[in-house]
Amino acid sequence: MSKNICVIGIGYVGLLTAVGLADFGNYVVGIDIDSSKIKSLQSGKSPIFEPGIEEYLRKNLASNRLSFSVDVSKSIKDSQVIFIAVGTPSKENGEADLRYIIEVLDNIRILANEKKTIVIKSTVPIGTNRRLHEYLSKDCIYNHHIVSNPEFLREGKAVYDFFHPDRVVIGSNDEDSKEIMKDVYRSLNRINVPFVWCDWESSELIKYASNCFLALKIGYINQIASFSEIVGADVQVIAKAMGMDGRIGPKFLHAGPGYGGSCFPKDTRALSAMGKKVNAPISIIDALVKANEEQKVNIYNRLKKRLDNFNGKKVCILGLSFKAETDDIRESCAITIVNNLLKDNIDIQVHDPKAMLNFSKEFPNIIYADNEYEAIKNCDALLILTEWNEYRSLDLVRIKQIMRTAYIFDTRNVVDIGEMDRLGFSYDLIGKRTHL
Ligand code: UDX
To answer: Which residue puts its alpha carbon closest to atom 6 of ligand 1?
Structure first.
């Protein structure tokens, strides 16, 4: 039957969890310390860009199954199930910082008026759920359930991913909490979504192992791309043929400027740190972290070499978000490139369909164009860093007329090569022959 749920921490994961669980028929309160975010959500406006989220937000607000509040005390008292989706940022040594989760548990210890099921949605180091259970059991009259329930949502596709998961992973140490979680996710049960029931540690490691493997696929194809450029092979043909092997699969084999986002960089560094800490180093991930940073710097060095050390040249960057369909710029390749261009005092003009506001908070002193053509005007290089659909259909005839030098560095292989050849562009690509 329906559960009274509160979701604490309304970031990307928390918002999708609150909206999705309400849509499953539960009564959900989303809690955050940011009152302006709560106000925006209560009015049916999402503080983040995520395709499709506002439709579900408004539908569930209207059904009175969903609300948002800053009152964590009332919500902890009223809820049977408490999802914790607060941030676990990286510390200097790469380990995850758990202080925000601990703050929530301390609130629960003081405020809980009955046994609660506490669901750790945040990505946490291996062993955390067990430690949290021990921490909460001390001086607490209720033996609260602790459940590990990692998420696998992709930004930009998070609504689809929430309602169509490949699997739901639940880590617990008792049967009662399993029954409660079956109730919470009964809608997915009904459509036979597979559930993986396991212990806490396995649940935590499934998240890191999955994310880091996906990142590994990307790091691998990016190095195959660099090799392809030297030997004259075509990385897209290679990736397509590789993906036809059922053991490999076609996804996450698109070579690019290096992965970014709030998860792959953080999770790879965290898994590497955890391995070293228990003297079981996962050196392949160390190599991946290094290779990914090198990939981003390689993009910059190739551009600098191509533009003959930039001497008075002007550069246009299209794409600031870490990938298409999101306004999120965390660990975006554009941050590495713009930092280096600013160090070299290069004139920059940029555009992104959604991420310019976020990017301007980090880089207020560069030129943000109203559209991609304004950004390109009078530039000597067009650097494409994010595969927005707008950039897949650029008017190359118009671009040829407005650029000072007709050169494109397409790090996402989204521009039609034949058209660039016909119009006399020089260009660099990823994993394909360059053309000068
Ligand atoms: C990732 C995982 O996919 C998701 O399961 C987890 O819950 C959170 O982290 P996300 O970071 O939102 O999701 O985006 P994703 O689509 O995985 O892309 C991550 C980065 O890899 C982006 O920078 C993207 O551009 C890059 N990427 C992805 C590639 O370079 N090539 C690919 O083939 C796929």
So the answer is: 152
